[in-house]
Design brief:
Shape: globular
Bound molecules: zinc ion
Distance between the termini: 72 Å
Number of strands: 17
Helix content: under 10%
Order of helices and strands: EEHEEHEEEEEEHEHEEEEEE
Length: about 325
């Protein structure tokens, strides 16, 4: 109970400091049923730069102007179609929600189509201490909770969709305390600062969410040349009869000046195909590369085919992933 004392009554008195009510922030579990590093990754962090331009909490490039949450991106659209649950990040009570927004990429409809509904189908959950978490871009009709309902940390509340202002399947996750935006990677960091603050993530997920300047989102093999949309469809792996063997990779968070390469080797270790990109002219949210070879006259040799994806900056290796296919 707080008593109000007229200001005049305080004159001439010295009070011991009264501690503010405890505002212990919630510990957050992963708000999406996926495995960072395997089938999902963080695409964007909170923008901590108050001015024009953007900085993530490590003073890196993995954010964009005024981005107010964390984007957990699924590796493919195929995965989203199979169904990936969105989870309550902490115990709480559902405050409000929206459903009924179509699952359509704004790449085809334009951003005007979702004006005022940028979050798409979304849920807001209230937690102790005046904290709220918000979940955006859920699949139309997938929300499985009601306003007023109590939820436990980790409980499914809906599924990842493609509603609102989004071009790829992801969960946009925002944390607030009252009206103030909270960066769950840097709670309490000075306003506008990158670096400092405390992680609100549960210790069990901190390693999986460790910051990476660049990340591999996809690697794989296909039977023909491909583009981003084809990668999102999770192309079928080649068989021994495949007309061509193509190794591909997609990286996110790549920087201006980065050079990507991919090399495909046959069972005997000989290079079958290799491709090196131009230096990236600017930072890129996502970037892909592939290299492939046509089936030789005698068919594919049986055995293990290996591929190496490497990103270099100024000749220095900054990201690498090896992957393989057995025919
Ligand atoms: Zn977002």
């Amino acid at each position: 109970m707080r008593h109000t004392i007229p200001a005049a009554a305080l004159a001439g008195l010295v009070f011991a400091a009264v501690p503010a009510p405890a505002q212990t922030p919630p510990r957050l579990v992963l708000p999406i049923q996926c495995r960072p590093g395997a089938d999902c990754e963080i695409q964007n962090y909170v923008d901590r730069d108050p001015g024009p331009g953007a900085k993530d909490y490590q003073c890196g490039t993995r954010s964009y102007q005024d981005h107010d949450g964390i984007d957990f991106r699924l590796a493919t659209l195929a995965l989203q179609r199979r169904g990936v649950a969105v989870l309550a990040a902490a115990d709480g009570r559902v405050l409000r929600l929206r459903d009924g927004v179509d699952d359509v990429s704004v790449r085809s409809t334009g951003t005007g189509a979702v004006e005022g509904r940028e979050c798409g189908n979304g849920v807001v959950i209230g937690h102790e201490g005046g904290f709220e978490t918000q979940y955006c871009h859920l699949a139309n009709g997938s929300i499985s909770v009601k306003p007023g309902e109590r939820v436990k940390a980790g409980a499914a509340i809906g599924q990842v969709g493609l509603s609102g202002r989004t071009e790829y399947p992801h969960l946009h996750f925002t944390v607030r305390q009252g009206k103030a935006l909270v960066d769950p990677f840097a709670y309490g960091a000075a306003d506008g600062a990158c670096e400092g603050g405390q992680s609100l993530w549960h210790p069990d997920v901190r390693e999986a969410l460790a910051y990476k300047a660049r990340v591999v989102l996809n690697t794989g093999f296909a039977t023909r040349s491909l583009d981003m949309a084809a990668i999102d469809e999770d192309p079928e792996a080649p068989t021994a009869e495949a007309p061509a063997l193509v190794a591909y990779a997609r990286g996110i968070g790549l920087k201006a000046g980065d050079v990507q390469s991919v090399t495909l080797r046959g069972p005997d270790g000989a290079v079958l195909a290799a491709n090196t990109s131009e230096r990236l002219p600017r930072d890129q949210a996502q970037s892909m590369i592939f290299a492939g070879a046509r089936r030789p006259a005698g068919g594919w040799a049986r055995g293990r085919y290996t591929a190496d994806y490497v990103v270099r900056q100024g000749g220095r290796m900054v990201l690498t992933r090896s992957f393989e296919l057995t025919l």
